[in-house]
What does this fold into?
Amino acid sequence: MRIGELSRATGASTRSLRYYEDQGLLSSDRRSNGYRDYGAEAVRQVAFIQDLYRAGLPSEVIRDILPCTTPTPPAGDCAQLLARVRRVRDELARQERQIAQRREMLDRYLSGTATPAGLGDQPDCSA
It folds into this structure.
């Protein structure tokens, strides 16, 4: 299928598909007229790439993951990759906790149940 067909089948822009190729995430054959030609598996692969991007993984990690999703994955590399993805997930969880703590502190300030350290005797600024 050509790039426009893949774009319609996946919802990914042609620009995104070209970017995926530039990053080594997607491959195509070239027709004699220079047009890209993608196999049927490209639809599943693009959907997977988009899911991994939405999950916050960078291109280099996605590029490493893709061979592990084939019917005959490479030996050994996939276990290390799984640990790498877990580290990314754990970092996201840490960031989520930090954001929740910051939001809770702001909520306490806004509700008047907390006052910044050293300002306990200041006049009420809520108006």
About this structure: Residues 112 and 126 are 8 Å apart (CA to CA). Strands lie at 29-30, 36-37. Residues 77-111 form the longest helix (35 residues).
